[in-house]
């Protein structure tokens, strides 16, 4: 420290450490500056950088402001040693005073928002990814974090269920072994661990084959509160659209059949499923119930209220089936639905009350719907 440069008072140092969260304020860094990330050894790896240098001859220095603001909290930002060198070294001209002020403000605002959160406003982000046919899928963590606002992530990682590289497609036990893996991971990741409590709330971002999403929803169940999100085709993001005054309704129709112990549940939402597609799989026509909308299309689900209304309609239909047909029937689910609806279909199954459900998927190369999984 120069003999002519005043030392930064302890109360200013403390305020800077607290309001920065003990993290580097350079955008995109955010690493702790009290611990080495490799060895995990603790020490002071921080530098209290001046936005306007304490000396007029320093980076962004000024004859008048430098001496006046040398110990001013608003003129200081906490950075790691690497980014201290970056903003004050040979690249200093690339970082203006306005840039650094913006970095400091954005970082400290974010720390304040997150530390002001009540526990009920945090959520664990769960991302599920499995290839759809030959198409790889991806669910980005930054997009998920943006979609959950005003909630905030409980941690930086969340729960990742990434099956995009899972081999074995075409094997006889492919779907059942896949379902077993999903059940095991859900059980493991939603349980309390050595370094984390059991999640109180999860936010689900899922892309994959519909039968697997239904199974995952069943594995999660209703033991933990959850919000479920939709990837929108028009904006390619996961934020629910604003609610409107538009009335949206699901309709239910019933087609009596010859077989009262096999009940077909048809969901014509992303596309229309014709009853002939269902009947061809049975020796006798099953009793058929269909939940549908006037114009089925892949982009119909835009608002969270539409998902909630489906949940109510679907749960009501399952209860009606149990009351009218008994608990010893077999449900056969034929879905043309978006991913969030599939997760809801699984979550709403009551293990001790609802009958077993066999889930079908449309396989174009096999001529139509094929039996995939049975969920108990």
Task: Give a description of the structure.
This protein is of the alpha/beta class. It has three domains: 10-116, no CATH class; 119-229, Rossmann fold, CATH 3.40.50; 251-375, Rossmann fold. Helix content is 30%, strand content 21%. The chain has helices at 10-20, 65-68, 81-88, 97-116, 141-147, 174-189, 210-220, 275-279, 304-325, 339-347; strands spanning 46-50, 76-80, 122-129, 152-153, 159-162, 201-207, 225-229, 251-255, 259-268, 286-292, 330-336, 357-363, 368-375. It has a six-stranded mixed β-sheet. Strands 3, 4, 5, 6 and 7 form a five-stranded parallel β-sheet that branches. It has a two-stranded antiparallel ribbon with strand order 1-2. Helix 7 (210-220) links the parallel strand 6 and strand 7. Helix 6 (174-189) packs parallel to helix 7, helix 7 (210-220) crosses helix 10 and helix 9 crosses helix 10. The longest helix is centred in the last third of the chain and has 22 residues, at 304-325. The radius of gyration is 28 Å and the shape is elongated. The model has no long low-confidence stretch (mean pLDDT 92).
């Amino acid at each position: 420290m120069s003999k002519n440069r005043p030392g930064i008072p302890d109360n200013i140092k403390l305020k800077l450490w607290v309001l920065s969260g003990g993290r580097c304020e350079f955008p995109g860094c955010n690493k702790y500056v009290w611990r080495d990330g490799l060895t995990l050894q603790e020490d002071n790896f921080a530098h209290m950088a001046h936005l306007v240098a304490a000396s007029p001859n320093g980076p962004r220095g000024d004859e008048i402001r430098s001496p006046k603001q040398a110990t001013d909290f608003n003129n200081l930002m906490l950075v790691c040693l690497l980014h201290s060198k970056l903003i004050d070294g040979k690249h200093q001209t690339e970082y203006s005073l306005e840039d650094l002020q913006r970095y400091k403000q954005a970082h400290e605002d974010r720390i304040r928002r997150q530390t002001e959160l009540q526990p009920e406003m945090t959520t664990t982000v769960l991302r599920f990814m499995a290839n759809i046919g030959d198409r790889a899928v991806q669910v980005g963590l930054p997009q998920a974090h943006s979609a959950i606002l005003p909630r905030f992530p409980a941690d930086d990682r969340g729960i990742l269920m990434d099956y995009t590289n899972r081999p074995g497609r075409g094997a006889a036990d492919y779907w059942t072994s896949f379902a077993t893996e999903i059940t095991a991971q859900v059980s493991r990741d939603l349980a309390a661990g050595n370094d984390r409590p059991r999640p109180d709330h999860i936010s689900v971002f899922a892309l994959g084959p519909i039968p697997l999403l239904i199974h995952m929803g069943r594995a999660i169940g209703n033991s933990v509160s959850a919000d479920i999100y939709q990837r929108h085709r028009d904006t390619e993001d996961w934020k629910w659209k604003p609610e409107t005054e538009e009335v949206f309704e699901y309709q239910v129709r019933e087609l009596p059949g010859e077989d009262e112990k096999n009940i077909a549940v048809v969901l014509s939402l992303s596309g229309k499923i014709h009853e002939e597609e269902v009947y061809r799989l049975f020796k006798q026509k099953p009793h058929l119930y269909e939940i549908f909308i006037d114009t089925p299309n892949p982009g119909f689900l835009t608002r969270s209220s539409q998902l909630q209304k489906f949940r109510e309609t679907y749960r009501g239909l399952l209860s009606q089936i149990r009351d009218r047909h008994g608990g010893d029937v077999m449900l056969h689910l034929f879905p043309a639905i978006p991913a969030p609806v599939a997760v809801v279909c699984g979550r709403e199954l009551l293990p001790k009350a609802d009958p077993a459900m066999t889930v079908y998927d449309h396989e174009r190369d096999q001529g139509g719907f094929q039996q995939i999984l049975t969920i108990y």
